[in-house]
Amino acid sequence: MKDNSKIIIECIRTGKNNEALKYLYKDPLRKIRKFILMNSGTLDDADDVFQDAIIVLFQYVKNGKYNEEYDLDGFLFRVAKNSWIDIARKKQKVIKASFIGFDISDETDHLNDLIKDEQLNTFHFLFNKLEDNCKKILSFVVFDKKSMKEIAELMGFKDEKVAKNQHYRCKKYFTKIVSDNKEALTFLKN
């Protein structure tokens, strides 16, 4: 955690809210505004979402739930981004789940990790919609690098031709699941 972040967290813990807010209204607000404006939002939307993110941060810190290993800016951005996605869905706006133009410095590597975690969670969510046999077959192919002959033996298929047909069917079905979920597809591509 950056020194500024430690000071801000300590200010929140000790009730020196104005000192904490002086920092928070500089850099994090600018980044959140930029994201929301690039994703179908207005300046008022951005300010409202930012206020909500600040409240969440204060609650986390005061309740002892804030992990000080998190980057403070990254934490606020993630909360704001998730909040904006929910709001935009409710308003039926089309948003880009991308981070084009968001400056990610070496100090915000944690934000990159959070984004990758969300992408992985999205992938797992879609993957779990598959039948168990398809999950096994695709896992054997993608993660275990098994041959069709090995898959046929593991799955109890007649021969590798059956394994190939099943693999093709499962791959096609998974592609349909992903393509039917446009937001997830966009998010996974970034």
From TrEMBL:
Keyword DNA-binding: yes
Domain RNA polymerase sigma-70 region, first and last residues per copy: 29-93
GO BP term, example: DNA-templated transcription initiation
Keywords linked to the UniProt accession: DNA-binding, Sigma factor, Transcription, Transcription regulation
Database matches in InterPro entries: RNA_pol_sigma-70-like, RNA_pol_sigma-70_dom, RNA_pol_sigma70_r2, RNA_pol_sigma_r2, RNA_pol_sigma_r3/r4-like
SUPFAM superfamilies (UniProt xref): Sigma2 domain of RNA polymerase sigma factors, Sigma3 and sigma4 domains of RNA polymerase sigma factors
Entry keyword annotation includes Methyltransferase: no
Domain of life, per lineage: Bacteria
Family, similarity comment: Belongs to the sigma-70 factor family. ECF subfamily.
NCBIfam families hit by this protein: sigma70-ECF (TIGR02937)
Protein name: RNA polymerase specialized sigma subunit
